[in-house]
Each structure stands twice: as structure tokens, then as C-alpha cells.
Amino acid sequence: MDGCHLEILLGSPFICLKKLQVLSLQANKIPALNKATLKGLTGLLRLNLTRNRLTVFDSTNTLIPLMSLRILDISFNSIQQLRVDKPLNSSPEVLLANHNGIKKWTPPIFSRMTELKLLDLGHNEIAVVDNEMFGDLNGIQNVSLNFNPWDCYSCYLNNLHNFLDNHKVQCVGCAVCKVPEEQYGYHVRSVAWREEECVAVDYYRVYAVPGILSIISAARAHLWRLQMPLVLHICIFVP
């Protein structure tokens, strides 16, 4: 069903194809899937949705109905959001999500795909890998983050360094800085992490700010307790 200009898949068109193992819908104009679209494909091993118009990856509409899925290709779409709202009974071994518009994701996403062995997030819009995102990638044998627009001034640069240490990059120029301007085109690993400055910022964010807010809150409560007798006194004696 490749290149058929499909835009909408009504109802459950594959519900009788329980033994189907490979379904390719690439090069169509499909903007989204709903809960009923893939219903019945319990034996499907490979699903190809590359080169469509998907903007959201939602496990409720893709992974949950496909109990046997091993390979999922959602590359070359316009995906910006990733959603895995609940633990999965089964997960793909290969997820190709390269060439999309993914900037970040809110874990847990990939850590809920317990069988995932290969993940391609190359050619997206990922600028930083924060602590939660970094943890979400742990345990996956083969992960590609090639050709993303890296922010080499970010305090999360150490996560990217650690990632590159654990996942060897096999191509030239596929892990380079986009910002700051003076480091544009530098290999990410050649840029030093601003450890002293970033650790200080992290300490301030984790400890100092909550401490200051606690002091302000306590001061307000104390001031209110001091004002309460005066308010009651005024209320009692006002005719």
C-alpha cells in the first residue's frame, strides 16, 4: 500500500488480517492513527509508516494493538511529540524515528520499551540531552543521535559526552555543535563541559532556590500570625 496517497484510514481496515506479518504504508499522506486503525494485527512483526505526515507518536494507537511487533519505522515524518502513557505488554526491538522534528521528550518513553535494542533518533531537532532523557536511553544497546543541532554551551553537555563514550559514532561530522556561534561545526567531544559553572548552577537550582522559597513562605506565615490579633481586635471593637 505504498504511495497510494492515503490520507484517512477509517474504522479498522485490517481487523481480519491477524496473520499478516508485514504492513507497509510508506509514502502516503497519513496524518495520524487512532485506536481502531491497527486493530486486529496481532501477528504483525513489521510496520512501515515512513514518509507520511505524522506529527505525534502515540503508543496507545500504535504499540499497544500490535502485540507481536518487532520493527517500527516512523522515519521521515513531522513528529514532534512522543507519548507512551502506560507500561507496554510488548515492545519493538527496532524503532526508527530519524528525520523528524523531535526536540525533546518527557520520560519514561523508551525505557518502557523493554525489548528495544536499536533506536535511531538521528536528523531531528534535539539540542540537549537532559538528565531524564539520558536515563531514558540507558540499557538500549544501539542508539543513534547523529546529525542533531547540538547546544555545546548547555550544562547538559556532559550527558552528551557520556553518551558518545558509550555509543561509538561511525560517521564524520555527525556529532557537531550548532551553538554557540564561536563553536559552530566543532565536534561535540572537543568542547569542554563547563563543570564548575554548571555544578554551581545546579546546586543553586536544587538547593538554594527551594531554600529561599521556604524562608519566604515561613516569613509570610509568621507575619500573618502577628497580624491576626490586631485584625481580631479591630473586628471586635468596630461598631
TrEMBL record:
InterPro entries, alphabetized: Leu-rich_rpt, Leu-rich_rpt_typical-subtyp, LRR_dom_sf
Keywords: Leucine-rich repeat, Repeat
Source taxon at top rank: Eukaryota
The keyword Iron is assigned to this record: no
Pfam family, one: LRR_8
Classification via SUPFAM superfamilies: L domain-like
Cytoplasm listed as a keyword: no
Protein name: Uncharacterized protein
Species whose genome carries this gene: Haemaphysalis longicornis (Bush tick)
